[in-house]
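ARCHIVE RECORD
Type: protein–small molecule complex
Small molecule: pyridoxal-5'-phosphate
Source of inputs: curated submission
Record status: active
Notes field left blank by submitter.
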Amino acid sequence: MVLEEFIDSLADRIVNYAKSSHDKSNKTLDFMTSYSRSKTTDLKLPLEGLGPQSVMDDIDEFLKQCVKTNRSGFMNPLWGGLNITAFAGEVISALTNQSMYTYELAPLATLIEQTIIKRMSEIIGFAEGFGTMTTGGSNGNMLGMLCARQSILPQSSKVGFNGSKYVAFVSSESHYSVLMSANVVGIGHQNVIKVACDEKGRMKSSSLEEEITRSRANGLIPFCIIATSGTTVRGAFDPLDEIATIAHSESIWLHVDAAWGGSCLFSSKKRQLMKGVELADSVCWDAHKMMGMPLICSAFIVKNAQILSSVCSHGDVAHYLFHDETKDIDLGRFSLQCGRRNDSLKLWLAWREIGDSGWAKMVDHYCELADYLEERIVAEPNLEMCSDREWTNVCFRYNDKSRADDLNQLNLEIRNRLLKEGEVIVSRSNIGDDIVLRPVISNPAVHTDIIDSLIEKVNLHALEIISDIPSSN
Ligand SMILES: Cc1ncc(COP(=O)(O)O)c(C=O)c1O
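STRUCTURE (tokenized, with ligand):
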């Protein structure tokens, strides 16, 4: 197959896939166990190559079997949809295959990444902010904790670190990546102190103060607070201004995990959710969540560039890459990675296309859709909201105590049936001891009809389960 023919065939498939997002005959998810899938799909790597036609066949099979994250029924994780401009950026990034370590090898890509980081810093309120694109919010949290360690022990990156006495504070509803960060940074899970939350899932600043005092009294050394702006399950925003006051008076590094909620900063209506973010020391913000960039696209931003450069310092041993003349512009001096993808191009293209105002409209639109979903839930006699809402996470469950005694079992089964049906996919989460359904609005394809359909399906499945009618899927 000649190049043009190959690319034409590929382009046809891309167009068909993108268009099929509204195709009623298509499901969001084709439920199949991994065992059945591995038995019914040809996955083996042959001794002799199968040739270019097999590539198209394999792509067809992949497109058929993948979860259709571009469909309106995809409301499970904190991301979804297909931004075609960003997709173009992704293709061009792969086509040009730049590695972000030096200006020499990624000249324009370097300037583009710096432009993105600078703009995000300004939006956060870090006048001299600096940063790097990372592999995601998990990595951003780890960098935040590493910067905190570097700040209290500037030699630690060189001479090592005994983390057994150093403690970090997070909300009890923080993302699990903070535990992984603690592992990598060297304090271990047991030195992550989970601070109690209020009824909305926000860290209680009074409890934070108490935990810090208790830790010091026990001979421990508080070095890092990670506040969350947009928790994973409830979408709660910790009170950054109150937390920052405590962090400053106690001289503790404050990192903000805004992987999920960072986009609120675009909206004049929602920005106050992160009031005080400019008082933090570092922030991570995923553009591959609400901003709809194809995975991966995530920024880590720090107020003081020097700290990040010392965390990522490699003592100039890589003489084959880094040279003095470009030391201020080579981004490999501010990253823990060596080879690194160009994740900025897609965001830069999408941002230039719609501007800050486009992001603000997107945030407000998603919040309105989440309001609509909440109104629909509240209006249904057997559905109940399981938490107050600040963001686009909508936690609810079916509750008809007169006909079902085990609500957890009932809601678990509702979600299993939704999965098997394969049209509207929502997450199953826990709030305290309760199992809840957690749709999230973070997908441009979501509209009010699919929200109505979710409500209808949950009610229908619940009634069937209560009446002992087996699943029709
Ligand atoms: C609050 C929060 N922080 C961090 C992360 C991790 O982000 P990533 O998947 O980009 O590593 C998530 C993921 O959902 C999250 O919800």
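CURATOR ANNOTATION: Residues 78, 136-138, 175, 177, 228, 230-232, 257, 259-260, 286, 298 surround pyridoxal-5'-phosphate (CB under 6 Å).
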